[in-house]
Structures are given as C-alpha cells and as structure tokens.
Fold each of these.
Amino acid sequence: MQSIWSKATDLPRQKQLKGNVQVENVVIGAGMAGILTAYFLQKQGKEVIVIEADKVADGQTKNTTAKITSQHGLCYYNMIKKAGKARAYGYAKANEEAIATYEKIINEEGIECQFERLPSFLYSTKEEGRELLAQETEAAKKIGIEAHFVPGNHIKELPFGITGAVCFERQAQFEPLAFIKAIAEKLTIYENTNAVFVHGHIVATNCGTIEAKNIIFATHYPFINVPGFYFLRQHQEKLCISVKR
C-alpha cells in the first residue's frame, strides 16, 4: 500500500557513494531522525554526510501518522506513578519542545508542509475508559501540559459514540515528506549506500568505506547488537489495515 504522503510529494533521488571518504560526522539512516540530526549538526557548522541503504524517508517516516504530539496514549499517569513527577515532567517538556522546534524550523526555512497547530484527543468508547482518561488529564496537568477532559456528549464530529476524551491543546500536524524534502536539499546524502558493519571509526558500506570522527546511528533497528543485545530487547511488528468502501 502506497503512503498517502508519497502520493503528494516526490522526493528527488540522491547519488550513491563512490569509493572511500573521510568526514567529521556520518549519520546512518535517512529517515526523520537521521535527516534532522544531520540538519542540526550542519547548522552548528559541523561537516556531516548521511547514508541510506534505500531511499530517503522510505521507511517509517513515509508511513507516519504525521502528528507531532506529546500525547502518547495513557502514559503520564503511569509514568508519574512508576518513575516520579520529575521524570514525567522531563519527558513531557522534551516532547512539547519538539513541537515548538518543528514550528521554528518550518518558519525559519520557509517550508510549505501544511504545518498546523491543533488539539489532540485520546478517547474511549467504553465506560471504564472514562475514569482512566480523567486520571490521565489530571496527571498531564500536574506536569504542565495544557490538558482538559471532554465528556463524550460534547464531541459530535465522530461517527460513533464515546464516553469521554482527554484533550491536549496546541499539538500539531504536518506533511512529513514535504518537510523532509526541504531539509534534505541542504544536506549531503548518499542513497543505496548500505552500512554493512562498523568497526572503530570506520563504516564499511556496499560501495566504499567512510572514516568518521563521529558515527551516529539513526536506523529503525540497531544492527550492532553487542554490547547491548538489542535483539533480545526489541520486538518488531507491522500493522496492515484494510479499508472497505
């Protein structure tokens, strides 16, 4: 199934790495995380290249829901309970700052990507969910998020009934590939350049080696498992949704 964003934005192809290079910083992975990492490094005057095994933004980024939000399910009530208010505040603050940073980049670079500040809603269709949403609302308020509970009968736009919702104000949405396209134009990116292994300051690829002072991994799944044994800690799954009209 083609990404809805791919239908709207065509990303130009980037050249493949040819031979061996030396660079101060190399970012492995040209999704949203990799592209933004390289963008911020370059803004600080650092030399940086990005390598991508396939195409820019061709993985998780092109299939994103395209919402930029600090609302990640029912997370804050449990986070405060298990990790404490200070850590929950730090998490919320970082995510709220990320929304503001996207907006700042878009304004400074003049990017046309349909960025819009909007409220975000988490709802339930079950009566028992109402209490959980109320708890989450109060937890979010405690750590400075602009949140409020909305009774189900106050939301008329949905084609089904809900028992309630927690609303986070001033969240955002955008067109991610249009954003990526504008940022990528300013960077040195090599597509079809697959990192095969990393040893010390050397990244070996299918078409040459890269010697770098700093190597940044921005891949969906870390291919270096030792130390760390990440393959024992992560679970991958793909959700396919079929819609009948």
Amino acid sequence: TTPKRNKRKMTTFVIADTVRTLSYCKKVPLLALAIFGSSFFLFLGAFIKLNVVPYSIATLNISEIGGGYLFSTCSVGIAIGAYVAGKTTKQAGTLGLSCLAALGTSIFFLMIPLTSFSLTFTVINLIALGFVGGLYIVPFDSYIQTKSSEEKRGQVLATNCFLSFAGVLLAPLCLYIFSFVLKISPSTGFIAIGTLNLIIF
C-alpha cells in the first residue's frame, strides 16, 4: 500500500498509543473485538506450546523432545485450518467462522485429557485443535485489515501486534500460576484454558 505520509512522530509511550488506538477501534463495529480475539489466539497458542511438554511427560509418559514434536502436530493443523478458512470464507470482513471455531477450540481443549489413553488419539486431537485455531484466526485478522481505515491501519495493526505479544507474555505467567501456585496438573491446565475460552466465546 502507498505511504500515507502521517505527520505523527514516533513516541515511547506505547501504552498511551495503544489506548488511543483502541478508542478509535471501539467506534468501528466489532473492530476492537477482532483485535482482542486475534490477541487471545496467540495467548492460546503460547499456552499450548508451553503446557504440552509437561503434559507429555506427566500424562503420556513420553520425553521432552517427544512433547516438542507433539506441539508441531498442532502447528500443522493451524496451517491447514488457515488455508481452509481463506478458501471457504466468501466475504472478507465477517466473523461468523471465528465464533464457531472458538467453540470448537474449547471442545478440543477439553478433550485433550480424554484422549490421553492413546498417543494417536492425542495427535489427532491436537491436529483438530490446530485446525479450528486456523479457522479462528484468519477471519479476525482479515477483519482487522479490511475494517480499519487506511489512515489508521498501521496503528491498528501495531496495536494488534502489541496486544498479541502481551498475550504471549501472559501464557507463561498463567502456566506458572497453574503449576506452582494452584498446583494443578498440565492435564487440568488444558481443561482450565478450554473453560476460559468457552466463557470468552
């Protein structure tokens, strides 16, 4: 896209800029919701990546390296889901698919402990979780790009990135609280995050 020659100077007050941009986003129907939905996706992804290794060791009795490979199956599912979302969404800037996928994400999170009796079923479940994750993120990101004005799009995308990586930062904190404060198992951690996602859905 062509530069818009914005006269604003770069500022070190990132939080203030983020708040200002979110105030603008609230004036555009569902834009702030799309930003928070997109950011929450990275929180979920980061939590899965961090929790799947202790889950693999404690519940599946496989090695730490095996747990790392297990997460890659979820990544494959995300790639397939994102591709399918791009191919099947008839109109850019609609969020219905993201809403359905958010429900699916909760279901597959809650199913992770139920498939722990079999590594094969766990892999299938993680691929399915990634798949609905891909369906979840693409409509949100396309909505953000299509519904923000040309003059504000750069600021909106920057705010989205800032909040997304804030979500990534919150994931290890959440895992620490689950593991060391609440003393819950990695399996129960997946149930807790699935329930949280269901509430947000």
